[in-house]
Write a structure and sequence with these properties.
The structure is a homodimer.
Chain A (H helix, E strand, L loop, with lengths): L5 H8 L3 H8 L7 H14 L5 H7 L7 E6 L5 H16 L3 E6 L4 H13 L4 E4 L10 H5 L3 E5 L9 E5 L1 H14 L5 E4 L6 H16 L9 E2 L5 H13 L6 E4 L2 H9 L8 E5 L13 E4 L2 H16 L8 E4 L2 E3 L12
Parallel strand pairs in A: 1-2, 1-3, 3-4, 4-5, 5-11, 6-7, 6-8, 8-9, 9-10
Antiparallel strand pairs in A: 10-12
Helix pairs in contact in A: 1-2, 1-3, 5-12, 8-9, 10-11
The structure holds a DNA duplex (30 and 30 nucleotides).
Chain lengths: ~325, ~325
DNA sequence: CCCGGGGTTGGTAACGTTCCCAGCGAATCC
DNA sequence: GGATTCGCTGGGAACGTTACCAACCCCGGG
């Protein structure tokens, strides 16, 4: 029981495959009654065109497929981005292949290779720290690439990011404004660009006030709620423990909130927003970014490239939003 | 500047395309030094096999591509499912096309048509209310289909769901146990299977105690936080307002929490868990389901079908977990 | 010395589609 | 009325790959 082909439809309709092709692709120049006969045969056989074969033959047209490669599709941040990309793609008649890298260069290579082997017209990429030389050849052959959330070192392509550094700096300045001087930084792997940027913003805010960054208050590489618990516990053991914590992503914010008591004994400001942040006691102050805008912008850039724009690579930097709700003031001495 | 083909590699290596094919596909029976020459040419040209052409020729083998069609990829629940599906696919060397339906039958048809036109080997589907007759032909032709989260009416395929009805009944029983008798139901569109099931569980719990379901306390069709605010406000206007609310998904739970005051004046139990639920005051009591298990189970079923299992369609029902944290007891009269 | 066989390699056709061009009848034009 | 054009249709080739089979080389056995 195989799929019917154009040949089958042609036989049933009593025409040549070429005519079927024309009807199925909606080309002009087929007599109305011939077209009707073909359409009837199509319906009768349940025929559907094989787009892989089609794209193989059509040289100039692409495959109407793009690839989206993110760190972790289960992360709500990337999920929102993905949905936004998918909507733009759907609007234009494209489909989207997705893959998660787990921030592992090897898996990134595997996923991208699988996508380019299927002749995707473009890639939207949250790059890992690994090299991207393997993209050179597909790019020469016409695959467009856009980076989002982070730039890829040594890859001259359109890139959409947010002002991580400024956002973090703003958040830490807020903590300083409320009298905190011992402020901890809890972040994910330092080799992730966004994390390094946010750490730089943390340091910059301290430097603005002439304060040094105490290495004892800085923890990198936190990848889980549990890991964050341990880091927080260690900070509490210090002779001079922090009175405030800047957390550099959602997962870490959650981990810290697990350990700050009711009511909290430590001020917290986090990067990324959480759905219930405003319902906490005290409500959570955050630096929020807009994943839908990130994904949408990246998709629009990619499609304009696919449609032929070949100007110099652009870099788009979106703004973060500082949302002050209260958690940065506690247990502030000046309030 | 085109992509190199096997012919190009063959010319550079001084062999026939057939030999290149053998080397690239790792077939045995090529002399070691010939293979080395080919591999060198591959590297020199940056050659990558065109898997679309490959799958076109290989009749019995598939495309190593599956499609995942969910309601909304941005929903954390489906995002977790998607990641779980993607992991299983990646493990087996498959790639995943994703699409969101928005619960619109028309968009579902479009997305699925785009996927089957690309000859996906299988589909994991969160079906909308619409008919699925258009799947008959692809299924006859070998495309395997598995439904997840909801069954598709009139489609005899493997289906993975959770015990929505039992979960809802358990939650509402909990509210009854704590003295509530005026319990509202706030749900999404009633034509979504999960929502109808959860409503049935709500009614069943009331019936268990000989209580009628007051239509004034039931609101269907809530699709946003804002819509939920309005529904909650209406309920408050009633002469005999509810003292407890059962919310039938995450988004509605969030909407209700927006409107219950600090501290809350209404007990709340929700379907689906929220990341910060345990940090609320009082902590949120929920019926939690496991999207990773749902996705993983569906993927495993699909791949066993793809690998040839042709037994009768199975129906897998996963259990929900009732997580009692406190929000169902307030402002309970018996406590 | 000739024949058979294993190990390598290449030629041809085919997967399902579309591009390009030729063919054909009818209609149009002077 | 003959030539030209137009509208419609079909035949052959090609996209990049692999299945299938034939050919070739070299070796050992009879």
């Amino acid at each position: 029981m195989k799929r019917p082909t154009m040949k089958d439809v042609a036989r049933v309709a009593g025409v040549s495959p070429m005519t079927v092709s024309r009807v199925v692709s909606g080309e002009a120049g087929v007599a109305p009654d011939t077209a009707a006969r073909v359409e009837q045969a199509v319906r009768r056989l349940g025929y559907q065109r094989n787009d892989n074969a089609r794209h193989l033959r059509q040289k100039d047209l692409g495959t109407s497929t793009i690839g989206l490669v993110v760190d972790d599709l289960a992360n709500p941040f990337y999920a929102l981005m993905a949905r936004s990309v998918e909507d733009e793609a759907h609007r234009r008649g494209y489909v989207v292949l997705v893959g998660s890298t787990n921030d592992e260069p090897r898996r990134e290579r595997e996923v991208i290779a699988a996508f380019t082997a299927r002749q995707v017209d473009g890639l939207i990429l949250v790059p890992t720290i690994g090299g991207h030389g393997f993209l050179k050849q597909p790019m020469r052959a016409g695959t467009r690439v856009v980076c989002v959330d982070r730039p890829a070192r040594g890859l001259a392509v359109d890139t959409v990011t947010v002002d991580n550094r400024a956002g973090a700096r703003r958040a830490v300045t807020h903590l300083l404004d409320h009298g905190h001087t011992r402020i901890a930084y809890l972040g994910d792997r330092y080799d992730i660009w966004t994390q390094a940027e946010r750490h730089a913003g943390y340091v910059a805010a301290l430097t603005d006030r002439g304060l040094p960054s105490d290495p004892a208050l800085v923890r990198h590489g936190l990848r889980s709620r549990e890991g964050t618990h341990a880091a927080l516990a260690e900070l509490r053991e210090l002779a001079d423990p922090p009175t405030a914590v800047f957390t550099s992503n959602d997962l870490i914010t959650l981990g810290v909130l697990d350990g700050v008591g009711h009511p909290p004994d430590v001020a917290v400001v986090g990067f990324d927003d959480l759905p219930l942040g405003e319902r906490l006691d005290p409500p959570l102050t955050v630096v929020s970014q807009d994943p839908v805008a990130l994904g949408g912008t990246a998709a629009n850039l990619l499609f304009s490239r696919i449609e032929g724009d070949s100007s110099a690579p652009r870099s788009v930097i979106l703004l973060t939003r500082f949302v002050e709700r209260g958690s940065g003031r506690l247990p502030g001495r000046n309030l």
